[in-house]
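User: Could you go from structure to sequence for me? I need the amino acid at each position, not a summary. Structure tokens:
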């Protein structure tokens, strides 16, 4: 029986000044025609013309593919999470898992494993699913080869020395009301909104943008109501972010 795959394309617009990304439906980077709906994304970002949907939760996430590693050329530089990259710590870059997620990485070629913290974005290379730190790659025995087939098992966030799967309906939620490449523009917009509307606003650098976020509120339900309230006030919004 023939299978028909209906391709739905993302609408991803970043206008000049105070406008943010607009996303209707985000195509997955995985093979097989899998799509993420806007409601499944905590937020989105674009690299090289491709739009990536950051998941609201890491719960139940398992992935098999190829890992690479990055080291000296990035040591000391800031990661997408805001942390400074240290090639001697057990960290990694992933395209769609929430920042702060801990992942067990198993080298399927030799059976070795390591637990890493996702604190960066990438790898933006076809066929790669995770970019490991030098230390993590060394534990997996893949430094010399450079690339290895691995299995990823998301463990969740680390709380009191244990791993807790994310519950995306509860937490600290913000509504994005602007996104800027320029830091000064982001803060200028923040203070103008605070003065005019009297709401709490913060600026967070995330995936290449200074994002202007209104909030927080502490449940997804309240975040949706808050987003509607902002729009009624005339404040343009794009999507809800859980931090």
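Assistant: Here is the amino acid at each position, in order:
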């Amino acid at each position: 029986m023939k299978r028909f795959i209906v391709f739905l394309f993302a609408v991803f617009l970043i206008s000049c000044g105070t406008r943010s990304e607009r996303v209707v439906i985000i195509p997955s980077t995985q093979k097989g025609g899998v799509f993420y709906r806007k409601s499944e994304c905590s937020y989105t970002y674009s690299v090289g013309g491709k739009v990536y949907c950051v998941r609201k939760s890491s719960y139940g996430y398992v992935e098999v593919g190829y890992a690479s590693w990055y080291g000296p050329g990035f040591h000391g530089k800031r990661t997408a999470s805001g942390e400074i990259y240290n090639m001697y710590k057990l960290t990694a870059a992933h395209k769609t898992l929430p920042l702060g997620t801990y992942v067990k990485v198993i080298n399927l070629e030799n059976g070795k494993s390591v637990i890493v913290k996702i604190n960066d974005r990438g790898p933006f290379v076809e066929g790669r699913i995770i970019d490991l730190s030098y230390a993590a790659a060394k534990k997996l025995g893949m430094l010399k080869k450079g690339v290895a087939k691995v299995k990823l098992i998301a463990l969740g966030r680390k709380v009191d020395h244990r791993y807790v799967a994310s519950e995306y309906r509860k937490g600290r939620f913000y509504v994005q009301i602007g996104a800027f490449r320029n830091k000064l523009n982001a803060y200028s917009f923040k203070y103008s909104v605070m003065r005019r509307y009297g709401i709490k606003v913060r600026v967070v650098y995330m995936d290449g943008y200074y994002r202007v976020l209104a909030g927080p509120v502490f449940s997804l339900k309240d975040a949706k109501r808050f987003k509607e309230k902002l729009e009624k006030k005339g404040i343009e919004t794009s999507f809800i972010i859980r931090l």
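One structural detail worth keeping in mind: The chain is about 15% helix and 40% strand.
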